[in-house]
Amino acid sequence: MIDILTTPLPILYQTGDLVAINKPHGLLVHRSPIASDAAEFAVQLLRNQLGQRVYPVHRLDRKTGGVLLFALNEVMNATMQQQFMEGAVSKTYLAIVRGYTPDEQAIDYPLRRDDGNGGLGTLQDAFTALKTLRRTEVNVPFGKHPTSRYSLVELTPTTGRMHQLRKHMAHILHPIIGDRPHGCNKQNKLFLEQFSMNTMLLHARQIQFKHPISEETITVIAPLQAEFSRMLTTLFGMDKPEA
């Protein structure tokens, strides 16, 4: 993981009114009362890096790395947030999960609204499309099994509920490696002991939207970060995801 205190945030796309970064795993988007241990935030770091105010138009979990989009003025912020709310923005994620996932699966499973303080609210519709890119079996015993099986999956959510992908993968019994508390603690311990790895293996790979001013279709792709890339090579023998 890069040193987020001293390394500039990687900029993937920038115009006069929008900027996208490759958010490091472990970096909060903004200050939160549920993460009082954090001293640095993407909003603060990017503001200082660019020398101007920035507005996050969507969110990524602290543990998730990848494409994070910011507006550079209030009008663009409101416009892009509206696009997200209307489902006009396409987002694609990569994840490494436990077990062999099906070739494709539609996960239509409502989730309870999380108020951020441990409380649960009403059920909200939540939909994720899953596509399996690669499966692997490694010679690492797990429980009663002599080997361990994992899948590299592409996840495309059409709703944006809190922790949606993490909860959906846990629901279908293929939790994301490194996820806490929705994942498998025994698998997380295995990865720490066998591979010295404790990063959540969820990466916001791509975001696609129509620029509100130029009306051009913009596609922003975030390269994999170090730990995800290392696990891709270690488990699947791949140096990058397949197209």
UniProtKB/TrEMBL annotation:
Protein name: tRNA pseudouridine65 synthase
InterPro entries from the UniProt entry: PsdUridine_synth_cat_dom_sf (IPR020103), PsdUridine_synth_RsuA/RluA (IPR006145), RluA_PseudoU_synthase (IPR050188)
Gene3D superfamilies listed in its UniProt record: Pseudouridine synthase (3.30.2350.10)
Record keyword NADP present: no
Keyword set includes Isomerase: yes
Domain Pseudouridine synthase RsuA/RluA-like: 17-171
Signal peptide range: none
Entry keyword set: Isomerase
Superkingdom in the source lineage: Bacteria
